[in-house]
User: Fold these one by one.
Assistant:
Number 1:
Amino acid sequence: MRGIFTGLKRINIGYVFIAPAVLFLMLISFYPMLDAFKMSFFDEDGRFIGVYNFIRASRNPLFINALLHTLYFTAVSVIFHLGLGLLLAILLTQLKGHYRTGIRTIVMLAWAIPPAIVAVIWRILYHPNLSFVPIILKSLGLGSFKWQLLANPHTSLAAVVIANIWFALPFYMLMILAGLQAIPKELYEAATVDGAGAINCFRWITVPGVRNIMVTLAIFDTIGCFVFFDLVFLMTKGGPVDSSEVLPTYIYKIAFTRLEFNYAAAMSVMMFFLITILCGLLYLLKRR
Amino acid sequence: MTPPRKVWTYKLLVPLISLIVAILMFVPIYWLICASFKTPATILEPTLFPRTISLQSYTKVLGSPFFRYSFLNSMIVAGSATLLTLTLGLLGGYGFSRFRFVGQSPLLFLVLFTKMFPKVMISIAYYLIILRVKLYDTLLSLVLLDVAIALPLALWIIKNYFDTIPTEIEEAALIDGCSRLKAFYYVVLPLSRPGIAAIATYAFLMVWQEFFYAFTFTSSMKTRLVPVIIYAHMGEFVTDYTWMLAASFLFILPLMAIFVLMQRYLISGLTAGSVK
């Protein structure tokens, strides 16, 4: 009898502790999501129109445009975040103590900067008159290369991608560094005794060791880049003639500028499903 | 190649490359700081070091009531959101860490799953809800949303941290007649200072940086936050760059200070649960 009572009491207390947090998230995060999902099947006047919004979106060239840009943005960002992050992390493992902490702090400052400020900094860096980059280019003899990346429809998206890479790189470098440090040193020592060079060590010890972390980070980064609004909006607002429009900025425009909330909800549902599929595919890369 | 020579170039090359990388990563920030100390006239001269140091833009920015007011707003929102995240997160993390109950894993997964929700998608429905409950253009709506951003990961970090604290001390307290809540408050919390520092820093960082919600759900001057103010200065034809740079630097100053001081806790908190 007493055993059952203490058992019940324990379960209840556990629920009590997590209830505030869980309920809060259900209310603030989950409920709007479900609401948006429901909204996508309806009209502005409240009539049920089924999948009409979805068909309309898939036929909309601007939507497809934003989608392609988002895929490009995400793919390039993730590849560079993880690739450069891995290189930098390996570099950092070779450094000692205080020097390593110092370099790590300096590099990590870029991550602590709000996207709004990152946009300010890079807008100035990309500015033909205000930035010091054209001067450097000119002195290197590349003066004919017009430093006008944000106003040029061909390069606007790439310019934003570069800023995104710079901004988030420290975070991924840090996480990969943690993963690298988890690989036992004995493996490397045993391999070098057996005659393995740096490249073989990398291929057979490092890569399998960080593979799971890299996939987790890839999933995290994919989601983050796919829905990243702030940087793109603040740097180009969608770029000269939609050349740097991404899904978040486009959905924002449809919802809050054209006030077509249901249409925007449908597009965001499609975006969400895409993210889920992409993450699912990436998850398959994980080692059991 | 003889091993000694290889080691020598190795020992020199690695620190050198890492220094170059660090400098490259830092240059944009350095540029921001330098340029903000230039006069409005010389800002059009892209030199790497200001010829004359002038505090002109800073006096302009600090003298602007708009900036001061929005800075205050940012502090209010970030502070409240951090406090709320701490409250919900510590309680929730403790619950997930110490108790076994039905639906524990699915609920934890659900909490982390909310991090996958796109802000744009939430904001569409949230906008209409906010209008209905007349919370539009208030700081409260921002605080609620910002907590929802920071809470999932904060809860995860602190749960992992609690997992590393042995339960013997709490059990001793319980035997002595402490209630669960008291044991949590008087025993576990004082031991968790690093973990608390980690999630408080993380929450503050996330909320201070936040732009999208602050931009979408406010329209009047009284609820503006600093990132939105800075953006407002960008969109026009005549962009006051010195103002923007000075404002930006003032804005990131608390962030940098907190970050440099707390980075140890923050980094250990973030990386603790990820190496699995």
Number 2:
Amino acid sequence: MSAPALFTGARLVDPASGRDELGWLRVENGVIAALGAGAPPPMAGVAVREARGHALAPALIDLSVEVRVDPAAEHETVETASAAALAGGVGAFIARPCGGAAFDAPEDIAAIPARAAPVRALPAAAATLAQAGERLAPLALLREAGARLVTTGSGPIAEARAARAVFTAAAHLRLPVAVRPEEPGLAAGGVAHDGAFAERLALPTVPALAEPLQVERDSRLAAAAGAAILFDQLSSAGGVAAVRRAKERAPHVSATVSAAHLAFNELDVGDFDPRFRLSPPVRAESDRQALIDGVRTGDIDAIVSGHAACSREDKRAPFPDAAPGGAGLETLLAASLALTRDGGLSLAEALAPLTCRPASLIGLQQGRLAVGAPADLIVFDPEAPWRCRAETLVSRTKVSPFDGRLLQGRVRLTMIAGVAAYEDAGERAPLHSRPEPTATR
Amino acid sequence: AGKRLGAEVVNVSPKGSSMAKGESLRDTAATVDAMAPDVIVVRHSSPGAAAFLAREVAAGVVNAGDGAHQHPTQALLDALTLKDRFGSLEGRRIAICGDIRHSRVARSSAQLLHLLGARVRLGGPPTLLPRDPAGWGAETATADMDEAIAGCDVVMVLRVQLERARGAVVPPIAEYRQRYGLDHARLARLAPDALVMHPGPANRGVEIAADLADDPARSLIRDQVEAGVAARMAVLERLLAPAEAAA
């Protein structure tokens, strides 16, 4: 524990309460001790940090980050993802295994939180053994080992009876179940949106209809079992509408969208650009607009990075054969802030799906600027422009759909439990060179 | 085509090579590129394979077919065949018929013929038609074969992929032949002066009657084969000496 810290001259942004004003915030013993508008009252024995008008908000909470547990690989590990998270202002994330692996045994996940520290990495338990969709994984033991939610893997559980068993078990343990909604038969082998563009490219497609179909089925099964269900990374207007209907029918339905799906559409695939080989695929512009609307209305609860643990080698193949996904931790904030410019959201509204809403979905105390809440905070400049260069990202995943893009929004400080874990002075020209971050512990 | 131009030609095929054992395209590309070829001609089952290869190697890349995406040299030879026969393609009505959706020949030829001023129509079973024919360079896409070929100058017939016919997507062969098969009788009724093309290999007796395929008065299939070598020679020559060829 360090000395109490006092932020002054900060634009306090707290989506949970709607606060957006210049003020001060005091951190003590790892929690937020006090905060207020304007100038702070006189205080002694504090380390003062002048925010100079930058925004001060809860650190981001990312509900989908892929990691490889074995540290040898050239792929993203728990440790390297944690470093990338700090650079991106993410204080907590749900850790999912990459590719075919499954967190289906307590020993798989027990070490993850310690390895990610100070970032809070919360493992996602596999719903079934080896994610084969047949036999239940030991969910109670996995929860004891630190799991915060259950995931059905890269797709839903195909067999309805098995799905129902998973929902029942998870409901009993009060663990939400995250499902990637894609009707498996329709989606099989697909790598692109089934529009005219992919048809000309002759790419195998995932029909948009596959998403609402699966939302319908799984929301009803989950409701019957009393489980909380989280639809993971919607991609279509039909999916958003189906989630809205599911929310009207039953409680404990939620949904996420990835930052990339808010930014890109099917045309970005261009000349078979593997950076846009994503799962779910990027779809039509009308779908993208529906996803943005969904965030605005709250039909979509959280924005995730969908950070993938793939390497450059995994992407070096013809489009249908390239691994899906890309880096997302370091672009999550900037990509979401674009909603304040193009999507008509206020800063607090754009940050809600990154802070208080994901926190409430998995029962975290973080995600709000409130007395007594953990001091997981970020200071950021919402306007600062920078160009994303995949090869200079902190993450080991060096491919990104945002590669080469001009973004706005830069983290200057990430603090976890009252300790500054990442700082970026960023005085040099941000457009042409990426300032070296100076990490502090 | 390469040999006719005096080139050294090396064939790399999946059978009996490390590719059959699972070596990836990028590794094969690196191996081949290490031989410092001037041009790599690639035929691959994945759409986008040629675009991918072009980003990976220093050599020039010719797409000889990437999945169902494109077959540019086929389109060139088809256009060459028709130019030899008609002079100009402007306003010529050309029907492309068959399994359009899964055809790289349809994509490439419709696009090129449209660029050259022809009026392209697409015909085939409803499950195999594109939803956006205009984006393909075609005026219409129809499941009615008679409507597709009525009044056409040229009917280009595509091979029905028998392996797909066993799946749920293509109608059974007997139905296909009856509704979409091209023979003398159908042509006489709807397009009495039309010429017939086929990219080969043809399923004689299915999408095209054997006697029609062989009829020298109607069929351009032999001309296509001849044009094929010439077109590919031209492509290679162009790639190898682009500045000179453009002059």
Number 3:
Amino acid sequence: MSPTPNGSSSTDKVYLKIPGLPQYIGIVRLTVSGLAARLDLPFDEAEDLKLALTEACSHMLRSAGGRADLQVGFQCSDGHLHISVQCVPAGAEASCQPPLHEPFDQAEPDLGIYLIEALVDSVDMETAEDGRIHSVTMSKRLAGGAESDR
Amino acid sequence: MDIKVNTRALNKAYAVEVQGEIDVYTSPRVKETINELIDSGHFNMVINLEGVRYIDSTGLGVLIGALKKVREKNGKIVLICTNPQIKKIFNITGLIKIFDIYKDEEEAVGSFVTA
């Protein structure tokens, strides 16, 4: 997952789908760490991406009330890492669980959005007609490490 | 992705030592521990974040909520944190101005003695 040596964009995409439950969000951070190593990103950039993506996932879980799965997509192109987070229909097991409230009651949603905007170069949130956020797309310009093929 | 929360009594406050990652899944453990201290009448705390590898807005929310509660009882919460990545989050959110952050327990406890 890296730009080709002549500078043209890569079409490699990485997707991760997790149940819409708080205990699985840590797996998203592990995936970011792995990709950051693959792209040879500086430590600070990797940590910024982990935080921004976790905030986006948490925000969407809150919006979905714990009844949707999350699909996270990663693509590196044009010197940027593009990350998308989407709610997808939950599996049968998740739909049988009671809605989640407690972890989100104590959250600071405004802080989360503020952090996302501070840590990435661009962020776009799409909301459904009922006001729920159903997708978040973020982009961060990659410095140095991702410019050569690895 | 695991978290450990330990407490111990200090001279003028209670130490809350957190190790691991504080996110939407693990933050309830931190909140529960802090609330138990508050319910037991302990309103001065030193929350040690030196063992924290990751914290997000959920974790910050727990700290903010705890600070509000103890202030209602004329209590105080201070933090111990030298991790530049964690301190960066406090800087970005402006919470660096809300929380007193010290580099070690001696300094943190000293803030209660002189208060």
